[in-house]
Specification:
This protein is α/β, with parallel strands linked by helices and 300 residues long. The chain has 8 helices and 16 strands. It binds zinc ion.
């Protein structure tokens, strides 16, 4: 697996600055693995526009990005989703196993020290959204962001705190190394799925991928962006909204939520920033032949 580094991507919504901080980007999943319901016919139908930027033409693997998104308002600095982390034991998910990504260097290059982060917000509590909640220091997992309040949706926490539910996802110890240490440091606030963080930043409930999955809405009605987490893992799901990912907890609800999300934001000026779409990541949803397409922002 090769990863590419990427320039800093920054967008502005009114007085709010939104910055993507990359952990890694790589051709990673066969389409039929990440989307088990994707038949060869479906993949062929879309291959021409998926390659080469969204699907590697040689390997046929879908290209994924793992990034945090930093929202800087006049009053607070909020870091959304913390990728997979370094030094984590992930024997069942080797793409996250014992890594040493230059994530903190990328964060510094974007102008943020760990101490600058006021809030860490996880759209959901899968291993690739909580990794940098902690880092390894002298053999112990400590919160990476010492001054931050970590906001988890209570509904999400209540699901993943149950060992049986976690075991259905992975037996890797991500709960122990990335969630429990911040809980024990008293930095976590369990919040409702309609929590308002700042005048211009709030979360909304969009469940299905996980029970307490939220999106982050930035800005006002006219000027806005939405961080859509894992409602969609690849742009193929805009064209084929019925396709779930192999990680969706509630298949039926995930499909219904995705369809509703696409209908809500299609043909609107709202910028959508998904958690895994490759560079340049952000774009708009447009209607297309009774379905949808994702129109990426032009690379600047
Ligand atoms: Zn994810």
């Amino acid at each position: 697996m090769t990863a590419t580094s990427s320039p800093i991507y920054r967008w502005r919504v009114g007085q709010v600055e939104i910055t993507r901080v990359l952990e890694f980007e790589a051709a990673l999943f066969e389409p039929a693995v990440i989307h088990p319901e994707a038949s060869p016919e479906i993949i062929e139908r879309h291959r021409s526009w998926l390659t080469p930027t969204l699907m590697d033409p040689v390997s046929g693997l879908m290209i994924f990005a793992f990034h945090s998104t930093v929202i800087k308002t006049p009053r607070a600095t909020i870091l959304v989703d913390t990728c997979s982390g370094n030094d984590k034991e992930r024997p069942h998910k080797l793409r996250y196993h014992r890594k040493s990504w230059p994530y903190l260097a990328n964060l510094a290059a974007a102008g943020f020290a760990p101490e600058d982060i006021d809030y860490v917000l996880c759209t959901h509590l899968h291993a690739d959204h909580v990794g940098w909640n902690t880092r390894l220091l002298d053999g112990r997992w400590v919160p990476t962001f010492p001054n931050a309040r970590y906001l988890f949706a209570r509904k999400e926490w209540e699901h993943w705190r149950v060992a049986e539910w976690r075991a259905a996802y992975t037996t890797d110890p991500y709960f122990e190394d990335s969630l429990l240490p911040v809980m024990e440091s008293d930095q976590v606030e369990l919040v409702a799925t309609d929590y308002v963080i700042d005048d211009s930043v709030r979360i909304e409930s969009w469940p299905g991928h996980t029970p307490g999955h939220v999106c982050v809405v930035v800005g006002s009605a006219q000027l806005s962006a939405v961080l859509s987490g894992d409602i969609m893992h690849t742009p193929l799901q805009c064209a084929e909204p019925q396709l779930n990912s192999c990680f969706c907890v509630d298949a039926e609800m995930a499909r219904t939520t995705r369809q509703r999300f696409l209908q809500t934001f299609a043909d609107s000026p709202v910028m959508v920033i998904p958690a895994h779409f490759p560079t340049p990541t952000a774009g708009r949803i447009r209607s297309h032949n009774r379905s949808f397409r994702f129109h990426f922002d032009r690379v600047r």
